[in-house]
Amino acid sequence: MTSLFHRAFGRAISNTLRSRPLTCTRLSHSLITHREPASPIVQLVKDRSRMQLRFFSSKPRPQNLKPPSRPYPHRQVPNRPPRRPFLGFLDRISENALFWGIITINGVVFVMWTMSTQRLKIDKNPYSYQWMINNFSSSWRNFSSGRIWTMITSCFSHENIPHILFNGFTFFFMAKPVMSILGSRNFLFLYLGSGIIANVASMSWTNLMRGRDNGSYGASAAIYGVISFLACVAPKMTFQLYGLIPIPAWLAVSGIFAYDTYSALNDSRKGIDTIGHVAGLMGGVVYFLARRFRIL
């Protein structure tokens, strides 16, 4: 009896102390949000007896990986036409026409000198000879009188036959390689620029250092500028000294420079503008450096 009583009493107490079960409510599917799988998605594809991994993106891959450029109106450069080179029309002259044109001008001026000299000797008329001196020789008197064109015309002026033959022979063999390198316009800049530099140096030297105003003319300084430029471009090129002796270009130009510099300092070669020769050689070197470092 006692055991039955204890069992009944224990069940009654346990029923009173037992808590009621919690009620669970299901969430509706409308409250659940599904996150899209991140790309790239790995998809397993069974290919016969092996598994392959195929990677693909949900968005097409851009072809250009660079970010789009932002517009900067204040940095936009207007489309400008290319700059025209200074005296660019000279490039229209063919190299062959320029070559023979320079030789022809030298020949015409030589004929003018010959005719004026003969008129002075035969007719005793100095007018034409003086006109040639005033317009085809460079001197401080001509320059200060306003005849500035003599800085250029003197580069085509020869009075005697040995002078024009020697310069013409040198120009004939040295000018064409330089023309093929520079073109017509730049060759004229080199030729005339070397001649002008030589005339300025000659006038300054004779007036300041020697105290006299000697006129000078000839294409020697301009041709020396062409030779020194060619020697700078191809220093190991072989020159034929007087058409007979082979000599490297750098040695030939160095020898001419040293010889004319010595003659100019000692004034040992009367009647020859040695300082003009030195200045012409330096003009060719300066022009080469200007082209080398893209100054011109």
UniProtKB/TrEMBL annotation:
It comes from the Eukaryota. One of its GO terms (molecular function) is serine-type endopeptidase activity. The keyword Hydrolase applies. Its main location: membrane. Gene3D superfamilies: Rhomboid-like. It is found in: Membrane. The keyword Heme does not apply. This is RHOMBOID-like protein 12, mitochondrial. The lineage of its organism: Eukaryota, Fungi, Dikarya, Basidiomycota, Agaricomycotina.
